[in-house]
Amino acid sequence: MRNVPGSDEASPLLARIAVSTFGGLLGGSVAALLVVGFTEMLKAMLAVVSRQNNWVLIFVPLVGLALSVLVLYRLGLSEHQGTRPRWAAKWRTFPPDSSRSHLTDDMVSSAGFEERFPWRLVPIRLLAIFATVGLGGPMGTEAPAAYLGIATGAALGARWRRFLRPAAIGGGAAGVAALMGLPLVGTAYILELEQRHKAPVNIERVTAALVGGFVGWLLNILLGVNLIRLVVPNEPPHGFYQALITALLIGVLSGSITSLSGAAIYRAKAWRASPLVRLELGGLALGVAAVMISLIASPSAAIGPGGGAITWVESTSAAAAITVLAVDVLRAIATTAAAAAGGCGGLFVPFLAIGDLAGRAFAPYLKIPSDLAGASGAAAGISGGYHLPLTAASLVLSQGGPHFAVLTSLATVVVAAFAGNAAAKLLGKLLSFTAGLTKKPVVAEDPYSF
C-alpha cells in the first residue's frame, strides 16, 4: 500500500473525520449540481438525436466521434518541452503519451494523490463528451460524472488545500450517486476504482466517499431528476434450481461478453496508431455494427448508452434468443469501437445494457423472469466487465427487490467476477503475440483501466 504524503496520522481522529466530512460535503454538493446539469444537457441532446430519421441515427454518432477526435487532438495540444505556454494552453495541453479520451486513466493514476489531478483539462474533455455521448455514441455517463466530480473537488481544493483530497473523493462519489440515484453505488465506485492504484482505504477517504455519496443521492431526490434507468427485479426465481441456473448461466454469459469488450478496449488503448487511423477503423466498425443492429432490431437500439436497446428488448417479447444475443454482441462491438476510435465517455452504463441483454437472451426458454434476468445480467456486466464486483453488489443491494431475487443477483455477481477474470486472461494469452501492442497505458499495472 502506498504511503500517501500529506496525511496527518498524528492528528486526532475526530479532527480528521471532521475535515473529511466538510471536504466531502463541499466537493459533493458542488459536484452533484454540476453533474446533474451536465447530464441533463446530454439527455436533451440524445432526445433530439433519437427523434431523427433512421439514417441520421446511424450517421450522427460517427460525426460525434470525429468531432471528439478533432477536439482532443486539434484543439488539444501536446506538452512542449522548454517553452512556456500561453495561459490558455494550460486548459488544453495534455501530458506526453496520455490517453486523451480515456477519463478513467486520470482518475486511477491520481488516486491517493488527488492534488495531481489535471482538473484544468475538464473543459476540453467535456466538449469531447458532448460530441461522443450527446450525439448518440454507444458510451456512458458514469465516468464523465465521476471525472467531473473529482475535478470539481480538486479545483476547489486548489484554493483550500486542506480539503483537496476529501473534496475530490466526495465529488467523485457524489457525481456517480447523483447520476444513479443510489448513494452506496457512488461510494463503492470511487473507492473500488481507486484501489486499482493502491490508494489507502482509511477512515478519512471512506468518510469523504460516504458523505459525497449521500449528498449526491440527496440532491437527486430533492431535484427530482431521473438521469438513468435501472431495471429492478419484481419477481423472484421459482425455486432453488431456477436461481442456480440464473446465477450460473447469466453470470458466465454476461461476465464473459463484457469482460472481452473491456479487454479489447484495454488493448486498443495500447495500440500504436495515429488518431486518424483509430478513427477510421473504429468508425468503420461502429458504423457496420449500427447498421446490423438497425436491420435485426431497430435503429434506436444502436445509439446511446444502451437505454434504447433495453426498451427494444422489453417491447419485443417475441424476439428469438439468437436475435437478442446478436444485438448484445453487436452492442459490445459498437462500444469497443467507439472507445478505440477516440470516443470520450464511460463504459459502466453500456456494460449495464450489454449485461442486461445477455441476461434476457435465454430467459423465456429457461422460464426465468425477464426483469430478474435483466437486473442480474446488468450487475454481472459491472462485475465481470468493469471488474468492480463490490460496486455491482452495492447496485444489487441498493435497487432492492424480493429477497430471493436479490440473493440470486448477488450470486450472479460472484459468478460473473470469476468468469470475467477467466475470459480476460484467456484473451490476453491469445493476443500476447500480436505486434504493435507494446506501448503501455498510463496505469500500466492495471489490466482493467478502461
Topology:
Layout: H1 13-50, H2 54-75, E1 77-78, E2 93-94, H3 103-109, H4 122-132, H5 142-157, H6 164-180, H7 183-194, H8 203-223, H9 240-269, H10 275-296, H11 307-315, H12 321-341, H13 348-361, H14 363-366, H15 370-385, H16 389-399, H17 403-430
Parallel strand pairs: 1-2
The CATH architecture of the largest domain can be named as Orthogonal Bundle
**What composes the largest sheet?**
2 strands, parallel
Tell me the name of the CATH homologous superfamily of the largest domain: Clc chloride channel
Structural class: mainly alpha
Could you name the CATH class of the largest domain?
Answer: Mainly Alpha
Provide a short characterization of the protein structure.
The chain has 450 residues and is mainly α. The protein contains 17 helices and two strands.
What do you see in this structure?
With 450 residues, the chain is an all-alpha fold. It folds into 2 domains: 13-223, Orthogonal Bundle (Clc chloride channel); 240-430, Clc chloride channel (Orthogonal Bundle). 66% of the residues lie in helices and 1% in strands. The protein has 17 helices and 2 strands. The protein has helices at residues 13-50, 54-75, 103-109, 122-132, 142-157, 164-180, 183-194, 203-223, 240-269, 275-296, 307-315, 321-341, 348-361, 363-366, 370-385, 389-399, 403-430, and strands at residues 77-78, 93-94. A two-stranded parallel sheet has the order 1-2. Helix 5 (142-157) runs antiparallel to helix 6 (164-180), helix 7 (183-194) packs antiparallel against helix 8 (203-223) and helix 15 runs antiparallel to helix 16 (389-399). The longest helix has 38 residues, at 13-50. The model is unreliable at 1-8 and 435-449 (pLDDT under 50).
